[in-house]
Amino acid sequence: MNTLIIYAHPSKESFNSSIKDQVIKELQRKKNEIKIRDLYQLNFNPILTEDDFTSFAQNKVPKDVQAEQSAISWANHLVFIYPTWWIGMPAILKGYFDRVFTNGFAFRHSKDGPQGLLNGKKVIIIQTTGQPEQYLKPNQLISAMETSVDVGILDYCGLEILTHKFLYSVPYVDKETREKMLKEVTDLTELL
Protein backbone atom coordinates (compact mmCIF):
# COMPACT_ATOMS: atom_id res chain seq x y z
CA MET A 1 0.00 0.00 0.00
CA ASN A 2 1.09 3.57 -0.68
CA THR A 3 0.96 5.84 2.35
CA LEU A 4 1.44 9.60 2.28
CA ILE A 5 2.35 11.33 5.55
CA ILE A 6 1.48 15.02 5.63
CA TYR A 7 3.33 16.54 8.55
CA ALA A 8 2.97 20.07 9.93
CA HIS A 9 5.25 20.95 12.83
CA PRO A 10 8.27 23.27 12.58
CA SER A 11 10.44 21.65 15.28
CA LYS A 12 12.53 18.53 14.72
CA GLU A 13 12.61 18.12 18.52
CA SER A 14 8.83 18.10 18.98
CA PHE A 15 6.71 15.19 20.13
CA ASN A 16 4.98 15.46 16.76
CA SER A 17 8.33 14.56 15.20
CA SER A 18 8.50 11.48 17.45
CA ILE A 19 4.99 10.55 16.31
CA LYS A 20 6.02 10.93 12.65
CA ASP A 21 9.10 8.76 13.23
CA GLN A 22 6.98 6.10 14.95
CA VAL A 23 4.47 6.05 12.09
CA ILE A 24 7.30 5.74 9.54
CA LYS A 25 8.92 2.91 11.50
CA GLU A 26 5.66 0.95 11.72
CA LEU A 27 4.75 1.49 8.07
CA GLN A 28 8.23 0.35 7.00
CA ARG A 29 7.81 -2.75 9.18
CA LYS A 30 4.54 -3.42 7.33
CA LYS A 31 6.35 -2.92 3.99
CA ASN A 32 4.21 0.06 2.96
CA GLU A 33 5.55 2.42 0.33
CA ILE A 34 5.89 5.80 2.07
CA LYS A 35 6.16 9.41 0.97
CA ILE A 36 6.52 12.23 3.50
CA ARG A 37 5.45 15.80 2.90
CA ASP A 38 6.98 17.82 5.74
CA LEU A 39 5.35 21.17 5.03
CA TYR A 40 7.84 23.24 7.02
CA GLN A 41 10.86 21.45 5.58
CA LEU A 42 9.41 21.97 2.09
CA ASN A 43 8.82 25.63 2.93
CA PHE A 44 5.36 25.11 1.48
CA ASN A 45 3.66 28.39 0.57
CA PRO A 46 0.27 28.30 2.32
CA ILE A 47 -1.03 31.56 0.90
CA LEU A 48 -3.82 31.22 -1.65
CA THR A 49 -3.47 34.20 -3.99
CA GLU A 50 -5.55 35.78 -6.70
CA ASP A 51 -3.04 34.35 -9.19
CA ASP A 52 -3.82 30.87 -7.83
CA PHE A 53 -7.52 31.40 -8.51
CA THR A 54 -6.76 32.56 -12.05
CA SER A 55 -4.42 29.62 -12.66
CA PHE A 56 -6.92 27.08 -11.30
CA ALA A 57 -9.71 28.55 -13.45
CA GLN A 58 -7.49 28.11 -16.52
CA ASN A 59 -6.49 24.56 -15.50
CA LYS A 60 -2.93 25.78 -14.95
CA VAL A 61 -1.92 24.32 -11.61
CA PRO A 62 1.22 25.85 -10.02
CA LYS A 63 4.18 23.45 -9.86
CA ASP A 64 4.26 23.29 -6.05
CA VAL A 65 0.56 22.38 -5.99
CA GLN A 66 1.05 19.84 -8.81
CA ALA A 67 3.70 18.07 -6.72
CA GLU A 68 1.33 17.79 -3.75
CA GLN A 69 -1.62 16.66 -5.85
CA SER A 70 0.57 14.04 -7.50
CA ALA A 71 1.59 12.67 -4.08
CA ILE A 72 -2.05 12.53 -2.97
CA SER A 73 -3.08 10.78 -6.19
CA TRP A 74 -0.33 8.19 -5.62
CA ALA A 75 -1.48 7.38 -2.08
CA ASN A 76 -3.99 4.80 -0.89
CA HIS A 77 -3.72 6.16 2.65
CA LEU A 78 -3.07 9.63 4.05
CA VAL A 79 -1.75 10.24 7.56
CA PHE A 80 -1.96 13.81 8.88
CA ILE A 81 0.21 14.63 11.92
CA TYR A 82 -0.04 18.09 13.45
CA PRO A 83 -0.40 20.10 16.67
CA THR A 84 -3.40 22.10 17.81
CA TRP A 85 -2.82 25.85 17.65
CA TRP A 86 -5.67 28.15 18.66
CA ILE A 87 -8.13 25.22 18.52
CA GLY A 88 -7.24 24.37 14.97
CA MET A 89 -4.52 23.20 12.65
CA PRO A 90 -1.35 25.21 11.97
CA ALA A 91 -1.81 27.86 9.27
CA ILE A 92 0.60 26.05 6.96
CA LEU A 93 -1.67 22.99 6.94
CA LYS A 94 -4.82 25.09 6.45
CA GLY A 95 -3.07 26.76 3.52
CA TYR A 96 -2.15 23.32 2.19
CA PHE A 97 -5.83 22.41 2.10
CA ASP A 98 -6.69 25.80 0.55
CA ARG A 99 -4.15 25.46 -2.27
CA VAL A 100 -3.96 21.69 -2.86
CA PHE A 101 -7.48 20.34 -2.26
CA THR A 102 -8.89 22.27 -5.19
CA ASN A 103 -12.12 22.19 -7.13
CA GLY A 104 -11.61 19.70 -9.94
CA PHE A 105 -8.95 17.74 -8.06
CA ALA A 106 -10.36 17.00 -4.58
CA PHE A 107 -14.03 17.84 -5.20
CA ARG A 108 -16.41 19.11 -7.83
CA HIS A 109 -19.46 21.29 -7.44
CA SER A 110 -22.66 20.20 -9.13
CA LYS A 111 -26.32 21.17 -9.06
CA ASP A 112 -26.83 18.39 -6.49
CA GLY A 113 -24.07 19.65 -4.19
CA PRO A 114 -20.41 18.75 -3.76
CA GLN A 115 -18.98 15.55 -5.13
CA GLY A 116 -15.79 14.21 -3.52
CA LEU A 117 -13.14 13.16 -6.02
CA LEU A 118 -10.68 11.45 -3.66
CA ASN A 119 -12.87 8.39 -3.08
CA GLY A 120 -11.21 5.14 -2.04
CA LYS A 121 -8.47 6.84 -0.02
CA LYS A 122 -8.37 6.32 3.74
CA VAL A 123 -7.18 8.79 6.34
CA ILE A 124 -5.74 8.77 9.84
CA ILE A 125 -5.39 12.08 11.67
CA ILE A 126 -3.08 12.36 14.69
CA GLN A 127 -3.49 15.71 16.42
CA THR A 128 -1.64 16.75 19.56
CA THR A 129 -2.89 19.35 22.00
CA GLY A 130 -1.39 21.30 24.87
CA GLN A 131 -4.72 21.33 26.67
CA PRO A 132 -6.20 18.53 28.80
CA GLU A 133 -9.11 16.45 27.60
CA GLN A 134 -11.21 17.59 30.58
CA TYR A 135 -11.04 21.16 29.28
CA LEU A 136 -11.49 20.50 25.56
CA LYS A 137 -14.34 17.97 25.58
CA PRO A 138 -16.84 19.73 27.90
CA ASN A 139 -16.38 22.90 25.88
CA GLN A 140 -17.10 20.89 22.69
CA LEU A 141 -13.81 21.96 21.17
CA ILE A 142 -12.85 18.41 20.16
CA SER A 143 -16.14 17.91 18.32
CA ALA A 144 -15.70 21.32 16.65
CA MET A 145 -12.22 20.37 15.40
CA GLU A 146 -13.40 16.94 14.25
CA THR A 147 -16.34 18.42 12.39
CA SER A 148 -14.31 21.10 10.63
CA VAL A 149 -11.56 18.71 9.48
CA ASP A 150 -13.28 15.34 9.18
CA VAL A 151 -16.57 16.54 7.69
CA GLY A 152 -15.84 20.02 6.35
CA ILE A 153 -12.68 19.07 4.46
CA LEU A 154 -11.88 15.36 4.22
CA ASP A 155 -15.35 13.79 3.89
CA TYR A 156 -16.33 16.65 1.57
CA CYS A 157 -13.51 15.47 -0.72
CA GLY A 158 -14.61 11.82 -0.58
CA LEU A 159 -11.95 10.58 1.84
CA GLU A 160 -12.77 7.90 4.41
CA ILE A 161 -11.65 8.89 7.91
CA LEU A 162 -10.48 5.80 9.80
CA THR A 163 -9.77 7.73 12.99
CA HIS A 164 -9.02 11.20 14.29
CA LYS A 165 -6.82 10.61 17.32
CA PHE A 166 -6.20 13.40 19.83
CA LEU A 167 -3.21 13.21 22.18
CA TYR A 168 -3.80 15.57 25.11
CA SER A 169 -1.60 17.78 27.34
CA VAL A 170 1.52 16.81 25.40
CA PRO A 171 3.87 19.48 26.85
CA TYR A 172 2.94 18.50 30.40
CA VAL A 173 2.92 14.71 30.45
CA ASP A 174 5.77 12.54 31.70
CA LYS A 175 7.99 10.23 29.67
CA GLU A 176 5.91 7.15 30.56
CA THR A 177 2.72 8.81 29.29
CA ARG A 178 4.46 9.81 26.06
CA GLU A 179 5.58 6.22 25.58
CA LYS A 180 1.96 5.10 26.04
CA MET A 181 0.92 7.67 23.44
CA LEU A 182 3.50 6.31 20.99
CA LYS A 183 2.13 2.81 21.61
CA GLU A 184 -1.33 4.15 20.70
CA VAL A 185 0.18 5.57 17.50
CA THR A 186 1.69 2.14 16.74
CA ASP A 187 -1.74 0.58 17.20
CA LEU A 188 -3.29 3.12 14.81
CA THR A 189 -0.98 2.02 12.00
CA GLU A 190 -2.69 -1.36 12.10
CA LEU A 191 -5.70 0.35 10.51
CA LEU A 192 -3.68 0.84 7.32
Automatic annotation (TrEMBL):
<dbReference type="InterPro" id="IPR003680">
    <property type="entry name" value="Flavodoxin_fold"/>
</dbReference>
<dbReference type="GO" id="GO:0016491">
    <property type="term" value="F:oxidoreductase activity"/>
</dbReference>
<dbReference type="Pfam" id="PF02525">
    <property type="entry name" value="Flavodoxin_2"/>
</dbReference>
<dbReference type="InterPro" id="IPR051545">
    <property type="entry name" value="NAD(P)H_dehydrogenase_qn"/>
</dbReference>
<dbReference type="InterPro" id="IPR029039">
    <property type="entry name" value="Flavoprotein-like_sf"/>
</dbReference>
<protein>
    <submittedName>
        <fullName>NAD(P)H-dependent oxidoreductase</fullName>
        <ecNumber>1.-.-.-</ecNumber>
        <ecNumber>1.6.99.-</ecNumber>
    </submittedName>
</protein>
<comment type="similarity">
    <text>Belongs to the NAD(P)H dehydrogenase (quinone) family.</text>
</comment>
<keyword id="KW-0560">Oxidoreductase</keyword>
<feature type="domain" description="Flavodoxin-like fold">
    <location>
        <begin position="1"/>
        <end position="185"/>
    </location>
</feature>
